[in-house]
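Practice problem 4.
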């Protein structure tokens, strides 16, 4: 038996296999994305997402290919002059680097693992602020309290969050941000190949003001189709169907997130017993609820991964500057609670015997 704790692509909900067979049998995978059948599917999927994830009714949902594509869409369609990118890890920095290729007036503000992002001076009115809600490379997160501070200080600015490792795992206060995006191969527990963008009325108005229309994935073109329950290009209909069926059958995000937080508390309480592995982030508030990152000496991490593989545990490698000295563990909803007990017991045995 394999226990998959890799932080993306990660464990897929087991019921997805049955849903895929349903999709095959229904014929929806053979329908075009302008058909009534697809429009009904897409419309109901958006309704289910808003209901199960508690997304405000006046926010719009669009479907694209990946979270990486969202970097491009945001840079093209939501930034006219300048954006500010805050990051403490590899994925936030990659978002900044990509935006630079499209907009030269981009400012990077890096911060440490045990810090909140820096707050811009009051006399600056930023066009767009970009944050990585959960930094998958190091298991840190932007706290709710900080999100509220940013929203209160910059009520007219667009605030964008990379929620790739947190959407469908966290219960968001969506109005703290204007653009939220995520791929589905993490907390959604689905196969890779699709991403969602959740956008506020303020963001939609900004895109209309900029009126950028030079690309196949210009946001206004995407939105025009989404408002008609269509997509701007032939989409991943299989994943939309799987998402629809999953949303029909999972609990509301409030219950999902409660379980995620309980597992996190139990995990870190047990991890305190370890001598050779420690959390990379000391502050509970700044630790991600959905990606755990443990640090240790290089030789310990190497041996741990070897032993984990022998016992059927798929752990995430370290990433970027932490590649050799950390492991990453997904705390995604599709992973059963019982598997965390097995993982904790393995880590305790390893620590005692090595």
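Answer key:
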């Amino acid at each position: 038996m394999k226990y998959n704790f890799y932080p993306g692509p990660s464990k897929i909900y087991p019921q997805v296999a049955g849903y895929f067979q349903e999709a095959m049998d229904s014929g929806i995978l053979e329908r075009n994305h302008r058909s009534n059948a697809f429009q009904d599917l897409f419309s109901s999927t958006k309704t289910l997402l808003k209901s199960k994830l508690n997304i405000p009714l006046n926010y719009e949902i669009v479907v694209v290919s990946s979270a990486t594509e969202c970097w491009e869409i945001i840079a093209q369609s939501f930034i006219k002059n300048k954006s500010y990118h805050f990051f403490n890890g590899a994925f936030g920095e990659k978002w900044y680097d990509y935006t630079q290729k499209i907009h030269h007036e981009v400012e990077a503000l890096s911060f440490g693992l045990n810090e909140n992002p820096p707050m811009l001076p009051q006399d600056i009115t930023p066009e767009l602020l970009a944050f990585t809600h959960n930094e998958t490379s190091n298991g840190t997160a932007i706290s709710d309290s900080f999100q509220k501070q940013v929203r209160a200080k910059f009520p007219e600015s667009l605030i964008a969050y990379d929620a790739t490792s947190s959407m469908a795992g966290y219960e968001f206060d969506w109005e703290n941000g204007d653009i939220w995006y995520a791929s589905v191969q993490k907390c959604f527990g689905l196969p890779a190949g699709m991403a969602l963008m959740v956008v506020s009325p303020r963001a939609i108005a900004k895109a209309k003001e900029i009126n950028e229309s030079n690309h196949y994935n210009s946001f206004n073109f995407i939105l025009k189709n989404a408002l008609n329950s269509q997509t701007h290009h032939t989409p991943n209909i299989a994943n939309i169907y799987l998402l629809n069926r999953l949303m029909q059958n999972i609990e509301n995000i409030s219950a999902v997130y409660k379980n995620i937080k309980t597992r996190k508390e139990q995990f870190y309480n047990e991890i305190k017993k370890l001598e050779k592995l420690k959390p990379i982030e000391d502050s509970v508030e700044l630790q991600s609820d959905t990606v755990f990152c443990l640090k240790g000496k290089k030789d310990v991490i190497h041996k741990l991964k070897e032993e984990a593989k022998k016992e059927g545990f798929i752990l995430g490698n370290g990433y970027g500057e932490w590649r050799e000295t950390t492991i990453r563990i997904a705390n995604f909803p599709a992973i059963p609670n019982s598997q965390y007990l097995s993982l904790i017991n393995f880590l305790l045995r390893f620590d005692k015997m090595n």
